[in-house]
Amino acid sequence: MNQQDKDFVRKNYIKLADAMAPQVVDVVEVLYVNGIISNHMKENIIDNSYPSRKKARLLLDLIQTRGSKGLDHLYLAVLEEKLYDAADILKPGNSPHNQTQLNISASSRSEEYDSPDEGLPDKWPTEAEVNAYKNLRVVDAVRHKKMVALFNETFTPKGRENIYLMSARVRGQVLIINNEVFTHLQKRDGTLADRKALETLFCALNFDVRVEKNRTKNEMWKVLEEESAREYHRHANCFVLFILSHGYTGVVFGTDGVLHDKTPINCIEVKKIVDLFSKSKSLIGKPKLFFIQACQGEKDQGQPVNKPDTDSSENKDLSSNLNTGDGATNVEGQDTVQQDAIIWETKNVLDNVIQSTQSDSDSDTRPSGADVFVAMATIPGFLSWRNTKIGTWFIQAIAYVFAKYAYKYDLGRLMTKVNNLVGRGETERGKYKQVGEKKDTLQKDLYFFPGLNDNQ
C-alpha cells in the first residue's frame, strides 16, 4: 500500500473502525473467500475475544499490508456486506452508496416506523425478516421529537429519577458466552447464528461486544469474575450478559457439563451470576441485563396445538424438523405439568435469582439486587427450542424486536414483544410451542436511544 493510502487510513482510522464494527466478522470472511487474506490472518481476528471495534482496528492494520489494492478490496468487501457508511468513507466520491438501504440512517426515516399501531407479524417471520437486526431503526432527531425530548430529559435531575442514562458514545459492555461444543452433551448447532445476530445488533446499539467461546464451568466463572471487577464499567451506562448454552432448572452448563440422574454437574447457578454483578461497585445504580438462552428442563413446551395446519412454506424457517432443545437431554413427548404448578415454579426460581433484601450498611439503603433485569428463554422444567440453521427462537426474536422497536420502546415493552413473538413459533413435529419468562428490579425506564449520544 502506498503512503497516500496509509495516510488516508490513519486519518479515518476511528471512523472506519466504528463503521465496520457491526459486521467486521463478515467483512473478514469476504476478504478470506476472495483470497485477500489467509486463513491464519482470518482466525487471528475472528477467534480473538476482543470487542468488535478492536477487531475492526486489527483488520485496518492488516489491510495496509495486503498490497497496493488493499483499500479497493476492503471497499468491495464492505459494499458486499452493505456497510454503506464505511463505503462512503472509503470512496466519498461515490457517496451516498445506497440511500434507500442505509443500515441505520435512511431506514429510520420511513413513515411506517412512526405508526403506534405497527404490530408483529401474524406468523414467525421468514429468515430474511428475522435478519432485521442488520437494519437497526434509530431515533431520527428531526422526526422523532418525542424520543429526542425524552433523551434530553435524562440530563436533568428530574429525568434521571425516571429514566436510566443511556447517552455515552459507547453505552457499555455486552459479554456473550457462547458454548457450542460439549464434552458430554449434544453440540448446539445453530448457535453461531445467534452470536452473529447479537454481535451485529448490539454494536449498532453502540455497545462494545466481547465473545467468549466454549468455556468449561471454571473458565466461565473466571471470565465472569474478571468482567465484574473491570474498571471499564465505572464509565459505562449499562452492562449486558448473554449466556448461550445447555441448561437445567436455574443453572447453565459449562462445556464440561453433564446431567447425572437429573442432577446437573459442572454448571453455574443463574442466581450466583446475578449476585456477582450486583455486588460490583462500578455498576451500582446502573442497569445490569442478563439473558439466558438455555433449557430449564426436559419437557416440551405445552401440549400439542390442535388447530388447522398452515402452509409450512410460509413458516418453514422455524417450523422445520431441524428444531432441537437446549437442554442436557433431548426428551420428546412428555406430559406437561398443570398450569398453576408451572406458574408457581417459575415464580419461585426467578424470585431466587433476583434478591431484593436491604444492605446491612447504614449508609446504603439501595436494595442489594436493584437495577437488575433477567430474561430466561423458557420457564422452569421445559426445553428451549433451537433451529440448527438459523438459531434459537428466543435470541432471534430479541434481534428482530430490538432492531425494529428499540428506537421508540423501553426494555419492558421490548421483552413483552419478544415473548409474544416467541409464542407464535411452533415446531413442525408435534406443534410444540415455547414461552419465556422475565423479572426485574429496575427502578427506572430503560431506553436504548439508538442514534443519539451526549455529543449531540
From TrEMBL:
Keywords: Apoptosis, Hydrolase, Protease, Thiol protease, Zymogen. It comes from the Eukaryota. InterPro entries: CARD, Caspase-like_dom_sf, Caspase_cys_AS, Caspase_his_AS, DEATH-like_dom_sf, Pept_C14, Pept_C14_caspase, Pept_C14_p10. Residues 95-108, 318-331 have a biased composition (Polar residues). Residues 170-299 form the Caspase family p20 domain. Residues 367-450 form the Caspase family p10 domain. The keyword Hydrolase applies. The keyword Protease applies. The active site is at H246, C295. Residues 1-93 form the CARD domain. Residues 308-317 have a biased composition (Basic and acidic residues). Pfam families: CARD, Peptidase_C14. Residues 94-122, 299-331 are annotated as: Disordered. One of its GO terms (molecular function) is cysteine-type endopeptidase activity. GO terms for biological process: apoptotic process; proteolysis; regulation of apoptotic process. SUPFAM superfamilies: Caspase-like, DEATH domain. Belongs to the peptidase C14A family. This is Caspase family p20 domain-containing protein. The lineage of its organism: Eukaryota, Metazoa, Spiralia, Lophotrochozoa, Mollusca.
